[in-house]
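dude i think i finally got it to work??
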Amino acid sequence: MSLSVGIVGFPNVGKSTLFQALTQKEVGKLNYPFCTIDPNIGIVSVLDNRLDKLSRMANSKKTVYSSIKFVDIAGIVEGANKGEGLGNKFLANIRETDLIIYVLRAFTDEGVISVRDKIDPIEESILLETELSLKDLDVIEKRMTSLEKEIRSRKKEAIIEMSVIKKAKKAIENGFTLISLNLSKEEKEILQSYRFLTMKPKIYLLNGSSNDISDETRSKLEEYGCPVISIDIANDLDSSVATEEDNLKIIDKSKLDILIQESYNLLGLITFFTVGPEESRAWKIKKETLAPDAAGTIHTDFKSNFIKADVINWEDLFQVGGLLEAKKRGMIKTEGKNYIIKDGDVVEIKHGA
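look at this
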């Protein structure tokens, strides 16, 4: 499952520094606007204490965490929706992501060039949202023009789509994001096909120290109904050891781990585990995933040849000390094709592949 988190914001607010702190990948962080042009991409492990315990219990040779892809996207400027700066490229890159982190500058270091005349995280968040909303509105208006032609040709699907598109247009014109709309499942499916920018979940990340961020600023952002995380990005990076061996330990001890976990949750992901002496592994799937589809994340043949799944909650397994003891006690349940995998399930797939 390929899901990605886009890191966005105005130039020089700390996007690339955050990306490096998360991924331990060296990227351009020069002190001028548009240092990042092509997006940087990195994979970050999602630490999970449950997997650590299971791996130790099974004396596994290898422990494999689930992961999320982070994308460092070029800085935005006002007028991006009309192509200003790297606007078109910037917005196209966001469209390919599944979740957005708005990096908002709260730090006051005068040595770091700012493209804006003041430090105001709230205003930055509004401007970013405005650019994305205006781009969505542009897409909607163009689609409405083509739908009018299809409606004149008496296409039933076009009439249904037009009603949904009009609802989206009205929402944006009234200052709402598309993700805030109360939509039916069918309406969501129609809008999701466009990958609208304001339909994506988002996180506000305030970049600065506790002295830089007021309670008023945090409270105002929280009113928008999105997670708000504050990180002194430069200090978190300075405390990191740029080696792959230490990377997970560093992130686990910092606010960066909170950001990773929050991203994981907002993407609607849960984790199930496979456990054994060779390897214990975490697998990410969407909530409400059926057992055969979950099996397909392990190997595509497991889905088409699925027979059943032996399932036990990770904590129950850990408490009895292993699969053999759990089987002796009759704690492992055999589930069929209609079983919905739960977060924390330890699963053994039976298949005919």
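The longest strand covers residues 279-286.
im so relieved honestly
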